Amino acid sequence: MEDGRVTRGSPKAGLPRLRLRVTPTAEWKLRSGHPWLYSDSIVEQNRHGLTGELAVIYDRYDNFLGIGFYDPDSPIRVRVLHTGKPKEIDEAFWASRLRVALEHRAGLFDEDTNGYRIVHGENDGWPGLVVDRYSTTLVVKIYSAIWFPRLSEISELFDRDLHSQRNVLRFSRNLQSAARGSRFSDGQVLRGEPLSKPVVFKESGLGFEADVLQGQKTGFFLDQRENRRAVESLARGRDVLNLFSFSGGFSVYAARGGATSVTDVDISDHALESAKQNFHLNRAVPSVASCRHLTVKADAFEWIAGSSRSRFDLIVVDPPSLAKRESERERALNAYRGLLEQAVQRLRSDGILVASSCSAHVSADEFYSIVRRTAQQSGRVFKEIQTTRHPPDHPATFAEANYLKTIYLGFSS
Question: Where are the beta strands (DSSP E) in 199-324?
Fold first, then answer.
């Protein structure tokens, strides 16, 4: 039985195929479409596996179950590429996967938005890898060492099919040391002219800069686009506070929406300077030019709980992930509670709270419940405006991929 051919770039192709047998529970999960096989679900394998090689998974009856990339150093031991009938994992396979990802995004964006996600990891069939477009620059970011043997192969595919002028490679923080000694490095320009400054792209007709070489994520938080648009629609005549503001995305939208003032609070000088630059990029928009923009360098937790009693009409609370692992979940829930309590106290009558979480280990139901309970305990009258989840270019096709959730509350007293 043919069980998948080793692709160009796979390690030590002369070795016998790596074969795994898994628990009945894991069989069921894989057949249900879950893209991860954990190490404790493997009950038998024929040899030690190498990072990035293809592993074939069999069920208890020795039937082909699936195939994926093996990672001996991760509790996610196999990132599954395909289940069902045997299939070759070759250049045509990856070209098809990329074509499907592009088709899913067809028609989502017009000429006013040229910054968006093209490939969203497992959710698009590319486990541990994302591709973001910023105008004519592509950023390829990998989150697993399984991709190291295939970087040249996939770079050629992206060069051919994505029609960019520049491709930049980024590594997640946990891969920085693993990349040492290879010919690839974080922030490496794989194709095109070198970069000495952030790239500029458009989102909803606004200009933004993205530090694609060193910035968080791939340089910008593209997943909050729809929430930024919603904040714009709510901002007219309001004094807006943007906590954990990063490069001021919510703030620029609020300014275009007619906000009287916007205050950005972030602990990073670099982020606040980028926020100022993003306001400057949009100075030709009258409402942006007339909006008073203030920046505060501070720990947002300390600042919101501090002695200053400034009050606002709209507060955006969008912290970084507070629970990067399950063991941090309870601490994250407590941190959210304290942060939200302080934010509600800073809201004027008829104020709006926009609270967002990107912690995958905190479910949407848990987060929404915390926000609603905090609002109830404040004694103020409020109504729920809406809740939002992932934007269409960041699909979530399995439970662990559901990280982003946002809730909007309007207060009347």
Answer: 199-203, 206-210, 239-243, 261-266, 292-297, 312-317
